[in-house]
Amino acid sequence: MNISFDALPLISGNMTGIGWCEVGQTTAMARLHPEDNFYYSFFSRKASEDHIKIERMERFMQDIKPKAAHFSGLAYRTVSNFIPVPYKLFFGKDIDVTHFFNYIAPPGVHGKTVITVHDMVYKAFPETVRSRTKMMLNTGLKRSMRQADIIVTDSEFSKSEILKYFPKHAEKIRVVYCGVDLEKFKPCDTPERIPEVKRSLGIEGDYFLYLGTIEPRKNLERLISAYHIFTQRIKDAPKLVLAGGKGWLYDSIFQKVADLKLSDKVIFTKYVPSEDMNPLMCGALAFVFPSIYEGFGMPPLEAMACGVPVLVSNAASLPEVVGDCGVICDAYSEENIANGLYNLYTDTALRADLSIRGRKRAEGFSWDRSAEMLYKVYKE
Length: 380
Fold this sequence. Notes:
The protein is of the alpha/beta class. It contains 16 helices and 13 strands. The relative contact order is 0.12.
């Protein structure tokens, strides 16, 4: 087969979870199936831009070739939302399967079309989604799902959410679990990197870690309030580190820290580079991720693979991913989240047990397994 992957999630400066999911599935698949031809397809206004975009992707391209179309990607995506300009005009007719990993597929794709719909947050919690993203999904997702041959999603929870809003596509939906890079996320084999990374991010002493986008659906305001309750119970409490890039509607999250006078205890970091994630996680007392809505929830799984105990909410797909290998809290109860923090801090035996069982569970979510599940979809 000739298989093309839409490279848009890979060529931005700071990749999000959608990009890392695409990288994990595509690189594993290309390595496992050398009998097929694989391409990363992307728009580039002129040949001089190709170099920049290929440079961002080249670490993933051992078994995958670049395929550029010299036209403005932004202009094409905007126009094709309203006028069905065929994608094959730019990328030809030699591809058997094209996979778009970020919800939207353009019109006129040659061969079979696969889209990944990670979650339905724009329907379930529209107030937490930026208006530009909502507009794109409201105008383009229904059409994309209609024209897709297969719709891939990350969990049984997400499948149930898609069916809630788009029940007529039931026959098209396939669940393909995400994975975790077990070479990258593992107990730190260079422990000297932990204090180095902590210094670079302004962290001293013990800390609870959240790593992800700073945005409302991650439930960070309740986490901060829960942490405030925890600090009333524990003198010299470990810091709370909120690491990651700013998302949408984040001002109230920063304001909550100021209102509770926790500025000396809660640390917001800059975007964390890929090479610093493992030492940052491995240095944490526990990983905390009480999100309200996740299609899969990759960060807790990465922490589990590092042997770090995790606290997650009982919401969405998180119990499906974590199982009984983490502390599960009520997403809407600050007191309950605070109790979870307290138990993790005071119970060393609990942390040790979760560390062992979490690593074992994470091993079942390899990218090789994820890629083989996705490859079966392509063969189908």
